[in-house]
Amino acid sequence: MSKPAIAALCLLLLIGGADRPARAQFFDQMGGAASHPSNIEGFTVAGKGFVTAKPDLVEIDLDVIASSELTADAIVKYRDAKRRIRDAFAALKLGNVTVDERGLLVDQKGQMQSPYFFDYQPNSRTKTEVQLTRKLIVKAADIRKMDEEGVLQLVGRLLDVAQDAGGKVGAGNNMNPYYYYRWGGNTTTGLARFVVEDFDKVQEEAYEKAIADARARAERLARLSKVELGPIVAVRELVVPGDKGTNTDDEPARKRLETAKFQEIPVRVELLVRFEVHPRSAVKGRNP
Amino acid sequence: MRLALVTLLFLPALAYGQPKPEDEDKVSNDNPARPLQMPPASTEVKEAIDDFERFSRRKAWERSLKAIYTIPDDQALRFVDGDNGFIIPVARKRRLLLTALPPEGQAAYRLFYDAEARKLLDEADGPAELKNLERIYSAYFTTAVGDNAADRLGDLYYELGRFDRAADCWLAILREHPDTDLSAGSLSVKAALALFRAGRRAEFEQIKAELADRYNDEKVTLGGQTASPKEALSRLMSDEKWGTDSVEPSASPSAFASPRLAETVDPAWQTRFAESVEAGMTPVELTQWESNALSAVVPAATVEGKTLFVNYLGHVFAVDLPSGKMLWRSASFHNLELLAQQNMARGLDATRFAIVAAGEHVWVLARDLKDQNMFASFQLICRRADNGEIVWKSTDLTDYATFDLVGLPLLADGKLFIAGKSQMNPQQQQGLPRQFVLAIQPHDGKVLWKTEVGTFRQGQQYYYYYMPDTSPQPRLVYRAGAIYLDTHVGVLARLDTESGQFDWGYGYKTAPFQTGYRFYYYMPQEPQAVGGPPLQTGEAFLVKGTQSERLYAVEPNKMKVLWDRPITKASRLLGVDDNAVYLGGDELSALDLKTRKLLWATRVPNGSMDGRVLVRPDGLWQLTSRGIYEIDPKSGDVRRIFRGKDLGSVGGDLLLTDGWLLAVSNRTISAYPRRAPGNAVTARDDSRFTKEQTRHE
Hints:
The complex is a heterodimer of chains A (288) and B (697). With 288 residues, chain A is α+β, with helices and mostly antiparallel strands. Helix content of chain A is 32%, strand content 33%. The two termini of chain A are 50 Å apart. Helices cover 25% and strands 28% of the residues of chain B. Chain B is built from 16 helices and 37 strands. A six-stranded antiparallel sheet of chain B has the order 2-3-22-21-20-19. A five-stranded antiparallel sheet of chain B has the order 1-18-17-16-15, with no helix packed on it. The longest helix of chain B is centred in the first third of the chain and has 20 residues, at 103-122. The model of chain B is unreliable at 13-22, 244-254, 516-522 and 676-697 (pLDDT under 50). The A-B interface holds A 65-70, 72-73, 76-77, 80-81, 84, 110, 112, 115-116, 125-127, 129, 163-167, 174, 176-179 and B 511, 519-524, 526, 549, 565-569, 586-587, 589, 597-605, 626, 636-638, 641.
């Protein structure tokens, strides 16, 4: 291949690939660019929607832990501990209170991190002490219709019953604050968790508000830019409420809102919306 | 092919390489991994015993006996491994070896040593009588005169009130000297009497049963009357009854009554000592004090008569039980926090503060918080019970100069027993610390005897700021002329109360205690339950070392382990009844004594790692941070939770007196009225005494 031919090829590639980064932005991610040429013109604005929802559910995490040299003993301890907690909540005779279970962990007691290496070291214990652990979640439903005093009484009662029954309330009791401080794991999560589940209606409202907000912003831009606002051509969700991911295998990913405080839970939606724009026919020609 | 041959050749080697299960389970005094070594016999002694066994197998009697008698007298009371985990004195080992000789060996033995034994027996008169007889019993028991010497020694011990030892002498003749000329019937009757007085019921019943159908043709003369052995024993025992430790309900109507906390009961009085400490603190000072581990210390308390004696970090005070009035105190509680803030004080193991009381005296184990020496020892102080005046203290007596006293003192047999650790001074190149038991004359502090129980293989711990000492505390228990010491580092020791003679030790499996070396303060350590004393069940003791993963039932008189079973390391013994042993730890639990199965486990707030739990046939009671829990001993169900007036504390001890259930926490001492069945005294009716008396010093 002659030099001019190579130069021509490079030029061709340069011209053809120059708009790739632009194409890769935004629309490619929306999946629309593959089928037809993208219209990268228009206004892209952020729209925010914000509504609040009152929690309808309160959850308290408990750990049932039993360990012993003999597995048979550990089973007796574990079974008794779980039974006593379940019996204690059943004795409350509250129809809206249930106790859910997460998976059973069969582990070895005494495994700990080495402070010297910040890593797990082989256990120096000559014998294995079997440890059975299960997380129980105490749920009290229908709290939306209660006033704060009622919720407070209910939560207090549940916490008392849980602790009186020997349950370990609150996560991270075994956490070593000095070890974790640098990773910021020392956040307060509270003893109870207030939850909003099935919040489709509220979410719909938040989306509507976000779109309306985006349209208002775009219209302002169009007015100031003296162009005509066209239809929405692309939307990207920036903040979506309630997609609770999970990094553990003991609970499925759920759509819910959680907070440690008993308050109206904010449902936020943030969207990036692009509108098509057209030149205003009426003002055409007046421009210098 | 070649590879296959080589593999086949080495296969047996792999099998040989496996440790034998019995070796794995064997507990040896010489095992360097064990935290405490009892005073070991020299290598020469062990070689002599090996030589004896080797020559005996070859029937070279002269050489074998010569070997065993090369053991010098000063080694006779050192220790070698016995059978079943027991570690025994060389003298006992020698006697066992000689007793086990076959008839031809016995004949040779008597040929060589009868003369020596006879000479000792002839000279056993006057002041030398006891010594010579003990020497024959120890060294020449299997000679022709060994039985006579043992019989006389038994008589002497019996006269001295040392029934346990008397019984051992007579039983040894019956069991280990079959060719004795002495009357077996007479020996049996004497042994039975001694066993009865020593409280060894099972062995007594066994001898009694033997007497029922044996020796009927013999005549025994005891107490000036002649009769058959069976009749003689019946006559001598006609007025005797087995003593009982428990109080008959008729003697004290409330002794068997439960605390009965079904209804809300206000305390009749309350001593709020923590408020005295905190009085006048600024919020910052209060926060500092509350973050100090010493603010969570539950004081040691004991009841004597109508007075409660309390040792709060070395500040001793007495409270009148009926009225709740403070009778005296050794120092003001105010400014205690200033002492407690010192780094040296923060390294204290506050569970070492102890108190016992009897009659006119109170004995306190304490350390001066002002002492800046982190190796400063705890001192024993005797005070007058009526006004707190110091009678004597160990720091004034030279006998105690080298000891750091540790563990709850025990008052028994007219003496005060306490364990102590010899202190190691690294600057003087002194050796490892040693474990001692001291017998003290209670009223003047004179040391009657001190016996070394062993040497710690783990050296002195060094403490850095705020690091508390976690080494376990030995616990003592008395029974029938002997005290038993659970060192909580792998040895249960039996000592004679009279002489301090160290009879034997039982070596149980244990891990070394956790070292004080830590990378940083909050480095988590395994939870450790407070070590409890051995619990008596029938003739046996239940033993659970602080760092042991096994629970043992040891029959001390027969030197047998009845059973043992694995158990959670972080558990402790709380109490025992006919059916179950109750354990503390992460949870309260009960273990069936017959099947050794765990019956139930109940979690209470903050577990049951420490604190005095009331264990009674009708229930278990524990003071927790959330109130007093009453547990059904059959099912483990929480019968009720009595919130009381101790909330805000970390929990603590429960003491039961005739009139009160005393809840001793880190903040208050509350006296809840205790009601006997049928005696429905309400708190209000009973509050003729000042209610909720607050002490602000």
